[in-house]
Amino acid sequence: MTPRTHAPTAPATSVRTLWVRLADAATAITPHSMLALVNRVAIAGIFWMSARTKVEGWFTISGSAYALFRDEYKLPLLPPELAAQMATVAEHLFPVLLVLGLFTRLSALALLGMTLTIQLFVYPDAWPTHLSWAGLMLYLVGRGAGSVSLDRALGIR
Q1: Per-residue pLDDT tens for 55-114?
Q2: Helix H or strand E segment including 56
């Protein structure tokens, strides 16, 4: 009688096979188009809500928004009035484009640049939040809007 030199491999193989099947199922139920749509709406919601705090009525930039850029944000190189106007327009325009899935890569890239600016010059301690936003936007920049989008309908990559 010879001693066994190795353990049976069947249990390890069945666990691996099960894991592969679960991974395949997860991939099948989370297609790119669904992930892109969720990312687009999530990022759009964040920036849209921020935009709406900067205006009175439909689209009058509030005095408090100007004060915020003058007293708290203090961006280098840009006058606070111009920065407030640019940010307010961007936070309204790009979320709408993202929800529509129109110029998605450009819109996500623009908001990613805005996030980087906020991270570097305004709220450097908020990196966990900004990193999570960046992850959603990088996906959109790299993969595009998906099939549920005007980009797809218009043949825009």
Answers
A1: 999 999 999 999 999 999 989 999 999 999 999 999 999 999 999 999 999 999 999 999
A2: strand 55-56
**DSSP class of residue 147?**
S
The single-letter code of the amino acid at 101 is G
**Residue whose C-alpha is closest to residue 112's, from 135, 88, 128:** 135
Query: Helix H segments across the chain?
Result: 10-29, 32-52, 63-67, 80-100, 104-117, 127-143, 150-154
Cβ distance 140 to 95 under 8 Å? Answer: no
Q: Which residues contact 38 (CB under 8 A, 6 or more apart)?
A: none
CB atoms < 10 A from the CB of 139, how many?
A: 18
So what's the pLDDT on residue 144? 98
**Phi/psi of residue 61, nearest 5 degrees:** -65, 130
Instruction: Give the Cβ contact number of residue 16 at 10 Å.
Output: 11
Q: Are 104 and 151 in contact (CB under 8 A)?
A: yes
- Sign of the dihedral through C-alpha 51, 103, 26, 128: negative
